[in-house]
Amino acid sequence: MEQNFAIGAQWVLLALIATVLSIRLGISVALMEIAVGVIGGNAIQLEITPWVTFLAGFGAVVLTFLAGAEIDPDSLKGNLKQSLVIGFLSFLLPFAGGMLFAKYVFGWDSNAAKIAGIALSTTSVAVVYAVMVESGLSASRLGQAILAACFVTDLGTVLALGLLFTGFSLKVVWFTAVMIVAVFAITPLAAKVFKWYGGRVSEPEIKFIFLVLLALAYLAVISGSEAVLPAYIIGMAMARFFKQYKETLTKMRAIVFAVFTPFYFIKAGVLVSVSALYTMSGAILVFLLVKMAAKFIGVLPATRWFQYEPRTGVYTTLLMSTGLTFGTISALYGLTNQYIDGSQYSVLVATVILSAVVPTMIAQKWFFPLEAVSEPPRAMAAMVIKEREAD
């Protein structure tokens, strides 16, 4: 037991350090948590225990749910066409480019190349949402469109993994049926729970939401899907309902950012091996460039087509270039099923995690769209304004 407390203290200390650095430097806390995770994993051999893995996984699930729940249905309807186009191109071109490059440039076999394409095609809803919240963009029309496009991209990733490898079993059919029922039943059920038990200090409504997310995550995993996918769908299904309960979302966001997401982002950093970055830096850099180039080739022209401002278009493209959750999941799936070896796994995971950091830092520092902020800028926006005034 004492060992668990010691490990927990190490993780929370790193989370606190990341938060302080984030505030002082004006860098997204998600990126700082990844950075301190890299240091912790390589300098002090930070241990990833089963309970850490669970907290990190649940953090990704709830964060994804919040991203879906904060998408305004009316805004989604107005941005539907652009979100579908941008999201689809954000998936298709990196998938094709990564797969072809792995096969014909690095000489990976067909299955390994497919895993590479899937891993590089993703966009991280978790990273994008965390950045949106800190920057004050989550409620803006731009933020809504980007979050919806992220869902389209990751849905393409999940479908590609299913079609190319896992197949569609009877379990998937049952899970799909359960999700359809859940989408239509969750809001009326939540309305009753919130009406009967809401407003108590014990927060029964939040516990109800957590229960639903955990149950659906379990069903998703045993059906061969991923735990975060139903969370996003249920979040979007409840978005109109939560317009009446913004305070509950705020409380959930505070719980998640304080307790769960630090484990998720720090764990992502711990998975990065500095020695692997050094010995395989060439392949990692090439894959990162391939992913970002493919995203720019697909997404940037689409933003121009939909008449985004040039700066906003680049910002959108950079955020769509991020990757984390589904990218690492895809790589781990390939390793577990022996479609890729340990070296290939290290290259893909390092590339995916760097793609969560590099595009986001560039976007926030040089292309932040101040005109898109729909509410008073928070720490990130304020820092950007201050830096510009200094320049």
Brief summary:
This protein has 391 residues and is mainly alpha-helical. It is 81% helix and 0% strand. The chain has helices at 2-25, 29-43, 50-69, 73-104, 110-121, 125-135, 141-166, 170-197, 204-222, 228-237, 239-242, 246-270, 274-279, 281-305, 310-320, 325-336, 342-366, 379-390.
- The CATH topology corresponds to Na+/H+ antiporter like fold
Percent strand: under 5%
Number of DSSP helices?
A: 18
How many strands appear in the DSSP assignment? Answer: 0
Q: What gyration radius follows from the Cα positions, in whole Å?
A: 20 Å
Q: What is the terminal-to-terminal distance?
A: 52 Å
Q: What would you call the structural class?
A: mainly alpha
Shape: globular
Largest sheet features:
none
**Mean pLDDT across all residues, rounded?**
84
The CATH class is Mainly Alpha
Portion of residues in helices?
over 70%
Element order, helices and strands?
Answer: HHHHHHHHHHHHHHHHHH
Uncertain segments: 374-388
Instruction: Supply the number of structural domains.
Output: 1
What is the name of the CATH architecture? Up-down Bundle
Q: Assembly state here?
A: single chain
Protein name: Na(+)/H(+)-K(+) antiporter GerN
Family: Belongs to the monovalent cation:proton antiporter 2 (CPA2) transporter (TC 2.A.37) family.
Domain Cation/H+ exchanger transmembrane: 13-361
Organism: Sporomusa acidovorans (strain ATCC 49682 / DSM 3132 / Mol)
